[in-house]
Design a protein that fits this description.
Layout: E1 2-4, E2 12-15, H1 18-27, E3 34-36, E4 46-51, E5 54-58, E6 66-69, H2 71-88, E7 94-97, E8 99-103, E9 106-111, H3 118-125, E10 132-135, E11 138-141, E12 146-149, E13 155-157, H4 166-174, E14 178-179, E15 183-185, E16 196-208, E17 215-218, H5 221-230, H6 239-250, E18 254-260, H7 263-274, E19 312-315, E20 320-324, E21 327-331, E22 338-341, H8 343-351, E23 356-357, H9 358-368, H10 374-390, E24 394-396
Length: 397
């Protein structure tokens, strides 16, 4: 049979897979496909075929077919395909890899590195009767600035964390009709139906720790923009335009870091911060601690030999750049990838406007930071220049 999802041109083909159809109808709210008998060969978003007790999944978005999948995993694959097809048919969108929930009328995006607890937190938020969960993985933001919920239930990794509260465990047990040994879809009524729209109000970077109280810190806007660039799943197109679009969007956002160890404390803090008319940090809003010290990581230079500081270098005149306060984002001429520089690395980039040796750069920085040993500064400059050389952002004279 063919499933035609509104807003997606190519259908999904299911062959002898009623369990997958039932799972799709369970895991997606408000995005029901038109179902028809399979017709002539045509472009397809996904193909699911029964193979014994499992299913094989093929898709133009996969490098190779997936085989022997249980029903819940096949459902997950189809959902990923129709979501990607949906946003690829809407060029100019930003698609953030994040969870998002409507809290007190504010759409709050929560993102972070792997194992930051994003999916568990989004599943927990589905237990809050007055919140609406837009997503736990993909949030498209259309060119008009409105974020769109696709109606997809959060997928929770099993087993639950050992310290999960009895109330959360009961909620998951009640709302997980679709699951396998590793994942469960939490199909609660608080999931925003497909097509729900709202302007994005806040971006929160999750920082899960082994212990300590939950607290909110200010997130420097440059760091927030860099993270949004890294988490954008859509084709960025021309890097300057994409960076401008994301940085303009970030100018209106409340940008925070949520440090937490306990899931219930994190939920209570989010409610206290956003269940009010004004956003955190604004007059009358929830108090926010000062920004944590920024990470020192710049352009990745792992595995590169240090640059020769005696050589004369300067910027590649074709390199694209955009200043973000005291920081800078660069992109390579004619290639993909965006590179972030912190304030010190931005100073080095400023010096490269004219031809200069690495030795001269290190000497200037040593005068500015006399408390740092000269050999440390020389090593840092050599590593940064090596990365700029490898990225094609600096040219050796």
């Amino acid at each position: 049979m063919h499933l035609r999802y509104p807003g997606v041109s190519a259908p999904v083909l299911l062959q002898d897979a009623p369990e997958v159809l039932a799972g799709l109808m369970t895991a997606i709210r408000g995005w029901e496909p038109d179902i028809a008998a399979a017709g002539p060969a045509q472009d397809l978003t996904s193909v699911v075929v029964r193979r014994g007790r499992g299913f094989d999944l093929g898709s133009p978005f996969l490098d190779a077919p997936l085989t022997g999948l249980p029903a819940a995993s096949a459902v997950c694959g189809v959902i990923a395909d129709i979501a990607q097809a949906w946003f690829e048919e809407r060029p100019g969108s930003v698609v953030l890899h994040c969870g998002a929930a409507l809290i007190g009328g504010h759409l709050v995006a929560l993102t972070g590195q792997a194992h930051a607890g994003k999916s568990t937190l989004m599943a927990r938020l589905t237990a809050e009767a007055d919140m609406k969960v837009f997503c736990d993985d993909i949030l498209p933001i259309l060119p008009d600035g409105l974020a769109v919920g696709l109606g997809i239930a959060p997928r929770l990794r099993l087993p639950l964390p050992p310290r999960s509260s009895p109330g959360f465990r009961s909620h998951v047990a009640t709302h997980t009709a679709l699951h396998d040994d590793c994942y469960a879809y939490v199909t609660a009524p608080t999931i925003a139906p497909h097509g729900s729209r709202a302007p994005l109000s806040a971006l929160i970077l999750l920082d899960r720790r082994p212990k300590g109280p939950a607290r909110l810190h200010a997130l420097p806007r440059g760091e927030a923009i860099r993270h949004m660039i890294e988490q954008n799943m859509a084709d960025p197109g021309e890097h300057g335009e994409a960076l401008a679009r994301i940085s303009d969007m970030a100018e209106t956002l409340c940008c925070l870091r949520l440090v937490y160890a306990d899931l219930e404390e994190a939920v209570a803090l989010l409610r206290a911060a956003f269940d009010r008319a004004v956003l955190p940090g604004e007059a009358g809003g929830h108090a926010v601690a000062a920004a944590l010290p920024p990470a020192a990581a710049l352009i990745a230079s792992a595995g590169l030999p240090p640059a020769d500081l005696s050589l004369v270098r300067q910027r590649n005149p074709l390199a694209g750049m955009r200043r973000l306060g005291s920081e800078m984002c660069l992109w390579r001429p004619g290639q993909g990838g965006t590179f972030a520089l912190n304030a010190v690395a931005t100073a080095v980039w400023t010096l490269l406007e004219e031809a200069i040796t690495g030795t001269e750069i290190a000497a200037i920085l040593s005068e500015a930071f006399p408390q740092v040993p000269a050999e440390v500064i020389q090593g840092d400059v050599a590593a940064l220049l090596a990365a700029l050389d490898a990225a094609g952002l600096a040219i050796v004279a």
